What does this fold into?
Amino acid sequence: MATQAAGSLWLQQHFNLNEHRLTHKSFIGQREKIELSTDGVIEQTYGPRYAPGVNNPLSHIAFSIKYDDLNLDFLKAVFNNIATEEIAAYIAAAMSGKYNRKIGYLYEWLTNKEIKLVAAVSGNYADLLEEDDYVTGKIIKNSRWRINDNLLGTPEFCPIVKKTREMDKLLKADLKAQIEKLRQEYPPDIFYRATQYLYRKETKSSYEIESENPSPDRINRFIAILNKAGALPGKELLDETNLTTLQNAIVDKRFAAPRFRDFQNYIGQSSLQHGEIFHYICPPPRYVHSLMDGLKRTEDKSTGSNAIIRAAIIAFGFVFIHPFEDGNGRLHRFLIHDMLTRDGIVDPGLIIPVSAHMINHMRDYDEALENYSKPLMQRIRYTNSANGEIKVTNAQQVESYFRYPDLTYQSAYLAQTITATILQDMTEELNFLARYDELKKDIQDLADMPDKEIDNIIILLHQNKGIFPNRRKNNFPKLTEGEFTAMEIIYREIFKGK
It folds into this structure.
């Protein structure tokens, strides 16, 4: 028996939905096996007993919900090809069937069309998402279908996050305990000084990601915003008025927005040879307000879920909606801090310098963004006028891609980034400050001089890996060559253990 497509793959082929990305493809064959394709797609073969009804789309939808990855964007496209009456007839054949009820609930949820039932459904309430397979949100009971809606969002905006082995391993780490361990290992004054420095480092790094060199005033304004992370209720935080106020505070005043955008924007770059190169076309303006309302509801519905997952779906959800012309990236990274503080991973007044880690690992950050943007750019159609304005010409066909993003990759990325930031970046900063104080005391014992001069000497030593640059020695005419040599030896003993 040759292998035959089943579930989502069969539906994709049957309805010619080839532009949709599938992360799990199922087949029916003689031997059960699981393989990982070169593009990262799981290809799984099931035995003959799993085979759905031949040429029956509803049977393949049921198979897909049971065995494939849930893709709400794809499922809506499938539902658009099936008449409501056909779905009603399928459900009527087994009114208490769990997967029949899931199909009915998802059809109405995605299409906003009502299915006429011949009788009330029965059976125990069933969770829409399986807890073992997906990150879930607060339950809303639906009596019509006897379904526990535990999705992370609402029809306006609803991310999906799958529980992978990698994700499970990353989320088991007790990051709050790791931060507390650092707090206990270092004197309070060093921990406080590190925190103050990390606020400034995080701010500069966040602007650097955008290739900007802000004024001291803008840096101070962003630090002030970071200090307020977690202070507002989620509903108020993501309100248009508050986000606009935050945007106005961190961008050049010339690009301050009065409200969410009412124009089409994009992320791209200019090329003399090829004109404008588009990396990401943002949601059309007519969808922006409903998407942001959905993001606000997602923050509420995901309350109680893992803090890092919440930070990922809110922050990446925001940056993919891109509600402003400028400042979206910095607000996106602020939202990461806000959610971690809001959910108690980070205490108020403390910061995890995720932007600093991102700037040192930009390829990973770019891949997290491109994992979402590249599939869209293969589907979206647009026109580009001579004055640079673009217009999406297939908005209805890509609307669901914006509304129902799979943010599994981005969630795993953020979990890795936050873990590395705590275990590496914060630890290194605390170690540096502790050694800095020791080095400063020893240099002071060697040559009693003003603090400012000692600080400059330490900076020069650190920048040159423990060797004092000859061209700078003239800046310290009162020091002898022997004292410079002694300082280098002290530096190596403290910073390099030699």
In short: The mean pLDDT is 92. The longest strand covers residues 275-281. The two ends are 69 Å apart (CA to CA). The chain has three domains: 4-121, 166-423, 447-495.
